[in-house]
């Protein structure tokens, strides 16, 4: 008997609300997507509340949840995932933050939170990287565009500190403050404030007047996470562009497969991502494939581009259909949350889910979409149950009782 | 962009079971209700477990739940809601009870729990109001008909006491007993028993021999409740007749709109209630409209009158349909529980739910009812999730994670 491999495809922000220009269909419903529809028809469908019903999830908490690591237990801020995602080898106890290279005007007000969308923050990261502040080592590494990750490595650090980033333009950079009275939180906040200040002194030396400060946010301390491979006994890999997703996967113990052209944006090379699945099919048991474009286009209020991105992805999925038909893979497609293209924000609405492959109780749903999934056989499911269901299809879930 | 207002209509005891005389339809299913059916068709539908699956809710716990205040956390007895509903300004620490003016025979047995349904208990309440017993101030105010609310105001009071009302005829009035050994519970029970006794001494002086005692029940201490307006950032009002519903809304921080002809009974003026919505549409963001008749008729075993009440309400809803079509309101209609007209009692059966308006993923359900809702896109939902969903349609729910 062939033991099928699990291909778990997550479209970021896949779900949407009815869109007038799409005849009151969602971008997914309106998309021409013969492969996704075939998966849906060959499978069982449902609606996923990725964290819990009524919770509006961030991408970080949602991914933890659908990858089986309960965010209420493990989530301590986004920083560590971003840092791991840009290639920093984190150690337990590290406090990690996200940073934007940004623009301050003469009055100390932020005028652009992305420094004119600079292409690469590597030179800026180098100015911070390697500093030692109050005995704490600072590690900085550039992410995509204007982004970087900063890690504080030392003893007695805390993530109970507020952001220095005000998250808005026309505001001053804030002083990070301890959220409690501990010496650890006070020390950490003071280090963050010193980094803020150093960046304002050092960044202008690079000669770009609109890249003159650093906005620090999302402090999180790295604590112990469950290891995905060990928990489920599955050799697991992650195929993603965005640092956050690679970081989450890395921290959960996935092998990161780096793919040419995986940008973590709408222009990512989806064909190469799927090729990374098919070419490594013998090497891994579980493939977590992340596609960011759907979220990016909804955050920009572009439902038609979201629809086209889904259509492009669908074409790229063609090599998966014969594998599914041959029983060599179990395929599951879903999103991490709904992003309303109208509100340009995450919402609590469920995301559609399909699971196809050997062992699945195929239902009557014929196409993949928010509304078709309403009558799916899986009903309404919480994110934390999904991995358990997928693993159980392989007969690998633990027995409760006897 | 218009920001729609939320109109949340709760029919008390809306759900029912199949009724033989109605061709095995429920009163709601059998009703001719073009407006409700239009809302249903334009919206998404589902089944609501107002507290939790398997829980048979009282009207008080169910309303707390669907208005977002978890009864397991906040519910301490019905008394405070009734007291707030008849206009007593409660203070934290007050213990409130409900009371019926009733009839005792010569042997001290209760022969009528409603004193021949007297029209007004105001004169009776005045006999109790203003007493001071063991240093505790007594406040009494009449409700509808034979009902009144009694508040004990002082330090060291407890709601851990049993009812003096035996809840049945042909029984004697009980002695309220402390449920634990605390001095507070003992004091409170003793005050309740003194009030019982005073009522038997004083009520006969009013000259109605069949209104000669007071049945006290539902002791509850007022604790801190979440403020609905502040939690969701919505200016909120309540349009209801019954004291309980006004009281719950008042304690949760709603503005109470008093409407002419809102009796809290089957003869209430529903047109005036809807007029209070349409005339105040610019003033509030959230309208909680309560209709009691459905419950009253089921409690009396009158499913046909329940059906007719729904039809009458449906006619009154006509002004809402154009507002819905214009995208000016989000409308949600549901019940607080099922009341079986055959059992003449609340049951655990789900209540149908519809939500229509901008942003809703319209499903295929075409009429409003218990059975049609079984295939609705919302599936089975718990009451506590409903407000979160409604608020999220406006993009107002908090983000968990990043």
Describe the structure.
The first copy, chain A, is α/β, with parallel strands linked by helices and 402 residues long. Helix content of chain A is 30%, strand content 22%. The first copy, chain A, contains 14 helices and 17 strands. The first copy, chain A, has helices spanning 27-30, 34-41, 59-66, 71-74, 79-85, 122-128, 183-202, 228-232, 243-251, 270-279, 293-299, 303-316, 320-325, 383-393; strands at residues 5-11, 43-49, 56-57, 95-104, 110-112, 132-133, 136-142, 147-153, 213-221, 236-239, 255-256, 286-291, 329-335, 338-340, 345-347, 351-356, 379-382. In chain A, the strands form three sheets. The first copy, chain A, has an eight-stranded mixed β-sheet, with helices on both faces. In chain A, strands 4, 5, 6, 7, 8 and 9 form a six-stranded antiparallel β-sheet that branches. In chain A, strand 14 (338-340) and strand 15 (345-347) form a beta hairpin. Chain A starts with a strand and ends in a 9-residue tail after the last helix. Chains A and B meet through strand 3, helix 3 and strand 15 of A and strand 16, helix 14 and strand 17 of B. Strand 3 (56-57) of chain A pairs parallel with strand 17 (399-400) of chain B, so a sheet runs across the interface.
């Amino acid at each position: 008997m062939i033991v099928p491999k699990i291909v778990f495809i997550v479209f970021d922000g896949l779900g949407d609300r009815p869109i007038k220009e799409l005849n009151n269909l969602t971008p997914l419903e309106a998309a021409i997507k013969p492969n996704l529809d075939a998966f849906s028809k060959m499978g069982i469908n449902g609606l996923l509340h990725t964290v819990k019903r009524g919770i509006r999830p961030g991408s970080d908490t949602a991914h933890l949840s659908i990858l089986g690591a309960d965010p209420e237990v493990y989530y301590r801020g986004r920083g560590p995932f971003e840092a791991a995602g840009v290639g920093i080898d984190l150690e337990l106890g590290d406090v990690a933050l996200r940073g934007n290279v940004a623009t301050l005007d003469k009055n100390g007000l932020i005028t652009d939170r992305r420094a004119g969308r600079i292409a690469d923050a590597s030179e800026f990261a180098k100015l911070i990287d390697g500093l030692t502040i109050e005995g704490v080592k600072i590690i900085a590494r550039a992410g995509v565009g204007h982004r970087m990750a900063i890690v504080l490595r030392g003893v007695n650090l805390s993530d109970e500190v507020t952001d220095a980033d005000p998250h808005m333009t026309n505001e001053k950079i804030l002083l990070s403050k301890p959220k409690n009275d501990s010496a650890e939180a006070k020390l950490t906040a003071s280090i963050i404030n010193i980094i803020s200040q150093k960046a304002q002194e050092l960044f202008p030396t690079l000669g770009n007047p609109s890249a003159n400060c650093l906005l620090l946010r999302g402090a999180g301390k790295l604590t112990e996470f469950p290891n995905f491979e060990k928990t489920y006994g599955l050799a697991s890999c992650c195929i993603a562009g965005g640092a956050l997703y690679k970081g989450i996967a890395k921290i959960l113990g996935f092998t990161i497969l780096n793919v040419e052209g995986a940008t973590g944006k709408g222009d990512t090379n989806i064909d190469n991502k799927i090729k990374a699945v098919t070419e490594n099919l013998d090497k891994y048991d579980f493939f977590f494939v992340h596609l960011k474009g759907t979220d990016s286009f909804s955050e920009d209020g572009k439902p038609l581009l979201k629809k086209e991105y889904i259509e492009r992805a669908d074409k790229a999925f063609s090599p998966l259909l014969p594998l599914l038909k041959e029983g060599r893979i179990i395929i599951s497609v879903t999103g991490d949350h709904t992003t309303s293209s109208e509100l340009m924000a995450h919402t609590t609405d469920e995301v559609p889910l399909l699971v196809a492959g050997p062992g699945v109780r195929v239902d009557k749903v014929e196409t993949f979409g928010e509304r078709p999934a309403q009558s799916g056989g899986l009903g309404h499911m919480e994110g934390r149950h999904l991995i358990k269901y997928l693993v159980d299809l392989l007969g690998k879930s633990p027995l409760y009782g006897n």
